[in-house]
Amino acid sequence: MANTKSAPASSFARREAQRKMKQSSSGIVPVADGQRPFTRINFILMGCCVVMIILGFLLMTGGGSSVEGGFNPDIFSTRRIVVGPTLAFLGFLSMAFAIIYTPRSLRGKRNDNPGPSESSL
Questions:
Q1: What is the DSSP letter of 65?
Q2: What is the pTM of this model?
Q3: Number of Cβ within a 10 Å radius of residue 13
C-alpha cells in the first residue's frame, strides 16, 4: 500500500515545511502606538536615569592611599560618602518612575482597546 500523502523526504525538508506553515499562519501583526508598553519619552527618561546612576558611581570612586599601609583621609570626603550615593539612589528611584510613566495622550487609549480574550466573550 502506497502512502497517498506527499511528505518531504528528509527531516530537514519536513522542518522547513513546518516552519513555512508557522510563518504563514502567524505572520507579523502590526501594533498600534497605544498597545506598546514604552514610548519615546520613557526611553529618554530611562537614559537620563542611567546617566545619573553612572555619574553617582563615578563620584564614589577615587584613589586609595598613595603610601603602602598608609591612611588617606580623602576616603571620607563628602563627595564620596554623600553626593555619589545620593545621586545613584535618586537615579534608581527615577528609573522606577521612568518605567511606570504613561504620557497623558496615551492614558485613556490603553484601556479602550479590548484584548483578544474580552472580544471573544
A1: -
A2: 0.62
A3: 11
Do residues 51 and 71 touch, judged by C-beta distance below 8 A? no
Burial code (b: 16+ CB inside 10 Å, e: under 16) for 75-89 equals: eeeeeeeeebeebbe
In 3D, which of 56, 57, 44, 55 has the Cα closest to residue 97?
44
The H or E element containing residue 100 is: helix 84-100
The length of the chain is: 121
Closest alpha carbon to 38 in 116, 92, 100: 100
CB 91 within 8 A of CB 49: yes
Q: Digits of tens for pLDDT over the chain (121 positions)?
A: 555 555 546 788 777 777 666 655 556 777 777 778 888 999 999 999 999 999 999 999 977 667 777 777 788 889 999 999 999 999 999 999 999 998 887 777 665 555 555 444 4
